């Protein structure tokens, strides 16, 4: 346990507070920026793949109705060659695989949760899947319709690896800029604290000199703010003290060199000041008389 409180200078308090505020603001802005960009990237990817699936649905509708497997295979192959496309599936109205980029899957019914929901969808559907092998997929399903009649479903599975890499690069870039801003902010806070506390430090040193009777001490501040006003008031006070002290010293010298005896007493009749003539006349030293009752020596 600490026996006393940790004392920090004004300069350190300004630096710590400024750094905290800068870090908080930069971190908050970075978080919201990354979140917004991630939403934008994912939304754009969804829209792109939904559009791709709708185009395939329009192209394969007639071939599906005519059970033209050759044409269906051509269409699926063209889509499957696209970058990051993991699989392309065309389901018939019974939910069975009418065509697949893996021909071994034709005629099967996918009973997994993604496949079941996709086969039953009547509108565009986007699902995400994480495999045990850490494979991250976006599964897009859109209905194949002729008029109001739904005759099948198109499914496209897209790897999220490239998308995740893009998000990761974005996070690294934002983090790098955030660190630069925080370091720059810390440097600026140090400069600001020096600018604010330097006049205060000079003022402290000047008051210490005044305490040592170095009257006339002045400080120079060119900021033009409240600290400058305080400095000007201090300089004015220092000048007044110097003038008053010079006057008092002059009067004191006159008193010390007077031929006639002179005793100055306070309201309680105690001796405060005596001149040399008084000490000679009474036979005392000055320090022996100071503080004594005047009646005791007169």
Key descriptive features of the protein:
alpha+beta, 5-stranded antiparallel sheet, rod-shaped
Provide the β-strand percentage band. Answer: 15-25%
Structural class: alpha+beta
Summed up, the helix count is: 8
The count of strands amounts to 7
Low-pLDDT windows of residues: none
Helix content: 55-70%
Question: Mean pLDDT, rounded to whole units?
Answer: 82
Question: What's the end-to-end separation, in Å?
Answer: 64 Å
The neighbouring-strand order within the major sheet is 2-1-5-4-3
* Biggest sheet architecture: 5 strands, antiparallel
| H/E element sequence | HHEEHEEEHHEEHHH
C-alpha Rg (nearest Å)? 46 Å
Globular, elongated, flat, extended or rod-shaped: what is the shape? rod-shaped
Description:
With 298 residues, this protein is an alpha+beta fold. The chain is 58% helix and 16% strand. It has helices spanning 10-65, 69-80, 113-120, 161-211, 226-256, 276-282, 286-289, 294-297; strands at 85-92, 97-100, 125-130, 136-146, 149-159, 263-265, 271-274. The strands form two sheets. Strands 2-1-5-4-3 form a five-stranded antiparallel β-sheet, sandwiched between helices. It has a two-stranded antiparallel sheet with strand order 6-7. β3 and β4 form a beta hairpin. α4 (161-211) runs parallel beside α5. The longest helix has 56 residues, at 10-65. The protein is rod-shaped and about 140 Å long. The two termini are 64 Å apart. The model has no long low-confidence stretch (mean pLDDT 82).
Layout of helices and strands:
Elements: H1 10-65, H2 69-80, E1 85-92, E2 97-100, H3 113-120, E3 125-130, E4 136-146, E5 149-159, H4 161-211, H5 226-256, E6 263-265, E7 271-274, H6 276-282, H7 286-289, H8 294-297
Helix pairs in contact: 1-2, 1-4, 4-5
């Amino acid at each position: 346990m600490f026996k006393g409180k940790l004392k920090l200078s004004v300069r350190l308090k300004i630096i710590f507070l400024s750094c905290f505020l800068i870090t908080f603001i930069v971190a908050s802005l970075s978080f919201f920026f990354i979140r917004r960009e991630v939403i934008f990237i994912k939304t754009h990817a969804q829209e792109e793949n939904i559009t791709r699936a709708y185009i395939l649905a329009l192209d394969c509708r007639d071939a599906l109705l005519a059970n033209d497997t050759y044409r269906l295979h051509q269409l699926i192959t063209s889509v499957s060659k696209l970058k990051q496309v993991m699989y392309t599936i065309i389901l018939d109205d019974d939910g069975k695989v009418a065509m697949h980029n893996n021909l071994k899957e034709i005629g099967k019914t996918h009973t997994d949760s993604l496949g079941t929901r996709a086969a039953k969808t009547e509108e565009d559907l986007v699902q995400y899947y994480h495999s045990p092998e850490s494979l991250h997929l976006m599964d897009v399903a859109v209905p194949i319709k002729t008029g109001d009649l739904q005759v099948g479903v198109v499914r496209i599975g897209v790897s999220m690896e490239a998308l995740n890499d893009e998000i990761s690069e974005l996070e690294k870039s934002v983090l790098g800029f955030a660190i630069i801003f925080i370091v720059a902010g810390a440097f600026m806070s140090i400069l600001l604290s020096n600018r604010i506390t330097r006049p205060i430090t000079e003022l402290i040193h000047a008051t210490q000199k005044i305490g040592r009777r170095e009257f006339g001490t002045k400080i120079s501040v060119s900021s033009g703010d409240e600290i400058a006003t305080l400095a000007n008031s201090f300089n004015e006070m220092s000048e007044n003290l110097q003038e008053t002290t010079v006057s008092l010293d002059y009067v004191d010298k006159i008193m010390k060199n007077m031929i006639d005896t002179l005793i100055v007493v306070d309201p309680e009749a105690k001796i405060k000041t005596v001149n040399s003539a008084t000490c000679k006349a009474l036979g005392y030293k000055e320090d022996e008389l100071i503080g004594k009752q005047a009646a005791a020596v007169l």
